[in-house]
Fold this protein.
Amino acid sequence: MDRIWKRWFGIASKYKYNSRFFRKSLVMMLLVASIPGLIIGVSIYWLASDNMEGELQRLHQNQIKQRAENIDDQLAYLELTFSHWAFDSKFDEKLKTLDIAYNFEQVQDLYRTLLVMEGAHPLLERVELFLDKPRPLIFNKLQYTYITESASLQPYESLLKKERSVFWTNAYPEAPTKDSVPNSLSLVNKIPGGSTEPFGAIVATINQENLIKMLKTLTPYNEGETILLTGDGSWKLSSGGIGKFTDIDIALQQEYLKHSSKSESFLFEHNKTTYSVSYGQFSRLGTTWVYISAAPLTSITAPVVLVSKWILFISLSGLLLALLMSWFVSHRMYSPVERLVRLLSGDKGTELSDEFDLFEKQWNHLSKESETMRSKLTEQLPLLREGFFLQLVQGYFYSLQENDLRERMKHHGWKTDNRQFVALMFQLTGFSNLQGRFSSGDEDLVTFTAANIIEELTGTQYEQVEVINFHNFSVGLLLSFPHDHPARWLEDDISAFCQEATQTINRILKMQVTVSISKSTYQVKQIPHLFEEARQALVYRDLLDDNQIIKTELLSKSSTLMESTFPFTLEKEIVHAIRNGLENEAVELIEQFMKELSASGSTELAVQQGMLQLLGSIRYAVLQSGMNPVQLFGGVNLFEQLAQLKEPEEMLKWFQYKLVAVFVQELISRQDFHLKQMVEKVILHLRENYMTMLSLDSCAELFGTSPYTLSRAFKHISGVNFIDYLTDIRIDNAKGLLRETEIKINEVAERVGYQHTYFNRIFKKYEGITPSQFRELNRS
């Protein structure tokens, strides 16, 4: 003990005499550590200020060039897209004879096309159609306007005199509105495309606000200016706004004329500010566009310079902080040593009479903590035991040897030497017949209650027992007996216990119980196999018997358990009803099918296998109907779902809502879709062949259906019957021939598929006048 005290006093003295040296050393280390940071900050600041300015300017110019190429690509895409519309069949030679008053459908189609064209690109503000023939007019998405004055017509006709079929112009005459922008830019495309004698043009007016937003991408900083102008200076646009040209815009244009032949960038000083100017050209349909972008040089180099200043500031702050921390840390690091010496030797180095008080207090504290942990461990032992046996019966310990398993069971209070083991499985059924005692989702609660009942009954009868809750209405029971226990007595005792447990569960939970009893074994490693055999034996329960006790060793000797008849006739009737969309009839047949499977003492396994066979037949019917079962049922494994169901009522509901209803609904929707497609094809056939001898029977035969089905579907989908629809088409075409041609009345009748005399009667019936009177009225 004296040697220990001397050692502690030596340590304290050493720290006392060397404290000043310790603090000085720490200060020096912190100062040296701060110097590299200071040097790095100064170096980066010098590099950013003197050497990186030129490199950043080059990077800025490359960035402007890339963004300009992006704008060029967007304009080229707009020109390509717009040029394709001139070749659309809607803008061909038929527009020369367009009658606004009578060609309503064609006019509506033109309105829709202009609306689609206007939304085809974000740069388009308005798309208009100018037609010089048959009568000068202007179309847009809202209205059409005839041009009656020659002075108003002259600017439009000048567009048709341009040499190029597609070109840019800022001279397009716009209708004055409160939102109209003077001198706006437009893209003109003559129609029809490729024609040497165009009779009209499609004109797209550019949204200058969106074009300005695009120009602003050439000034990536908040400061700066961008100008876009044509090579001859007839049109120009500034990123500052529509119609806004500041002093710097004018100065940039003048400075550009001085440098345009020298390089693609230059430095320009304006109002004591140096700008980095980049410029370039676009080739747009035979014309040259020029962009000029100017950004303050300080904005380009500002980020790096700011970071450099911050690094320099942080380095200086770190140096100052090092001076403060050196004093504080040295004091804090020395204080624990000083307190330790004072605790061991006293404030003045005198002997301590009670040095071990602290150790005693710490020891008592640790003893209390240890006792607390021991009590918590005791509380957790039942959960650990439950988890161990659950893993044991589920086969998670296959890799362990027999001796290891026996040792683990001994840790949980089980005797394993000269013992035999028996496994029991309790399966609860009848949950769907409880009529409101429990609701869906209470399966775990019911199983937990049953496990508690079984545990109370076994606690007073058996020496070693473990109840295992498998949830989902299944409870396992592991029993252990001495190896010399009489086999006959053991069998009678377990049977009596199973009957008692079954009656108790019947009385309390109002549910039926099936119990399977495994064979006995002397090896712990065989316990998982016992439970698996007992679990598999449950499927052999008789569905006509409420409570049952099944012994696995007797299953192989019983042949009645596997006897069952399969109702093949009902299976065919079920599939037929489902194919025809008879949902209610199919559900009733499935219920009858299940009753026949359950008759004559059939087991759960037999019923389940029969229902799985029926599921396979229905799934095959789905495939034959042209549907994909994976897509129809959402990729669900139907066979796995059905195999999890134990009770007939649950199986019937599953077939009704998860299978039949889904298939029938999809079948009905597909039938409606096919009928709609067929009617659309018939309408197209009528429009193309109305001048021939058409009838309901001939169209039904052509499209592979009956006249009755076609007539009903046509009326349901189009709103009119077949004959009326065909008559409307013929009368409309006849009126067009009467208005626009001079052919005889009988020839008009032949062209629309009528005989002359019948044509006169049907025309007067629909129009109220004869064909001759109709022609004379339209001439006047």
In short: Residues 2-85 form the longest helix (84 residues).
